[in-house]
């Protein structure tokens, strides 16, 4: 044992040295790197899974979750090939990308319906107007709107318990902008979580609860929750794929995107992945409980690629109440 | 207690005896009550663990199958597995051990055997002790700036391994020092008396004798590192990985390849975290199964540590 010891030390030293060498010299296999929104994650994950199956392991795809903003940060530093985004790229992110010389294609891939929910035992709520939701969620409501009666005198005097998205998520940004009228402007005394399952538990266990999150979580938990029809001015509309399709579920329908770096597209594996994405998106989007775009949207994305139509059609601003049709028209103008 | 001081209270010796008996009975009751309190506290801790573990067992055990270990993650809960996660965890642990053990043991030996007693050494000692209490996310932030960007390691196995190595370094240093301190001074003196140099004393006596203690410390450190999520998320471990890092063997031109060090990776806690936050209930069961595997991994590492200590201690006879 005594004789072995110096040898062990030498071995450890050698390994350590090898380690530092290996770190600098790498010959990695073809990898497509994707990061960004947790909302878009299930779709990109499904595409990545199928793509790797189709390529029989010749190309590796990694998908991370660091939020839309975090995803753009990495994307604009050139660390990733594709950014998952649950909202359009914002002005500041456009500037960052421009500074680093990263140019990109904007590709809408699906729609999501932000769903407002109450406890299934709640009998008096079937629909709510945007004005009523605003009355509940605006910053001034904090401490003032405490029971359902405070919102609408026709409703009972029952304590209202609120559940919503955490303030770092794109969902929070969109909901506040669509309902309150200003992004990130919300009352603070509600149960906030980035983990939607926490919100599902909360709403299903609390008779006076009201909350919001993405459509996919509602569909998977339909028995525990009751979706509220939203009256955006033209009568109550329920959150269903059909109503998102025909543009009537407003203002809580939102498009979600991927952004692809022009430079990365020079790599054959990235180009192949994006083409695969657009060709196989529709059924996969449906499978993971989002609302697919019409087929021409996906072919349109590929056309942009072929004709080198770079950039965004949103001018660095988030926009609420855009229907699929309007989005299509706008993307066509690029 | 002098006897007459008690007799004063009542006067009769009988009453005095009564008082003493009463006192003893009261103390015994208190004793018993305290014992009960202790058992209750213990039971509470054990029950909470047993409940958590039991729930995980019930939810997760039916999911454990050969396929679960050999499949990649998937959007379908039934076919999703932990292959990339457990391979990632083991590779990260390997890097962690290779880095933390020589550094930690070396630092421990230096501080115990070589370091002069001065202000600098005191400062180093206080720092090492304090480092053990720093929240793990701080290590993650440090590693993000240092390993991921400064050294350009990116989101790789090497970066994660180095991060966790930093995290367990204080544990290894403290364990090494504790182990060295249990070696009687006579051993050193005996060796010096025979003409051994300092290096010989350390290499032939100090390190071999303290090895069981050091190994226990290393394994307990690794068992802590294996469940760490925060620093790994901070340095950007990925959520969906459906491939394995390049194999270290069988590459043309090299006997052993180190490409896997720079490969992207995922680890068990992150895979669990992702599954927990899924909308489909079936993924919750997957998460429980992955949790079960992780707990078993940790417990078996602790068991190995206990066995090593027992086994090696038996062999050392002074």
From TrEMBL, chain A:
InterPro entries from the UniProt entry: PBP_domain, Phos-bd, Phosphate_ABC_transporter
Signal peptide location: 1-27
Keywords attached to this entry: Periplasm, Phosphate transport, Secreted, Signal, Transport
Principal cellular location given in the protein's record: periplasm
GO molecular function (one): phosphate ion binding
Keyword Signal: yes
Pfam family, one: PBP_like_2
Annotated ranges, domain PBP: 24-278
Record bears the keyword Protein transport: no
Family per similarity comment: Belongs to the PstS family.
Cited function: Involved in the system for phosphate transport across the cytoplasmic membrane.
Protein name: Phosphate-binding protein
From TrEMBL, chain B:
Organism: Accumulibacter regalis
Keywords, sorted A to Z: Cell membrane, Membrane, Transmembrane, Transmembrane helix, Transport
Xref: CDD domains: TM_PBP2
InterPro entries referenced in this protein's UniProt entry, alphabetically: MetI-like, MetI-like_sf, Phosphate_PstA
Topology relative to the membrane: Multi-pass membrane protein
Transmembrane segments: 32-58, 78-111, 131-151, 157-180, 229-246, 288-308
Pfam families: BPD_transp_1
GO MF: phosphate transmembrane transporter activity
A GO CC term assigned to this protein in UniProt: plasma membrane
Location of the ABC transmembrane type-1 domain: 86-305
An annotated GO BP: phosphate ion transmembrane transport
SUPFAM superfamilies: MetI-like
NCBIfam families documented for this protein: 3a0107s02c
Protein location: Cell inner membrane; Cell membrane
Record's protein name: Phosphate transport system permease protein PstA
Keyword Magnesium attributed: no
Assigned protein family: Belongs to the binding-protein-dependent transport system permease family. CysTW subfamily.
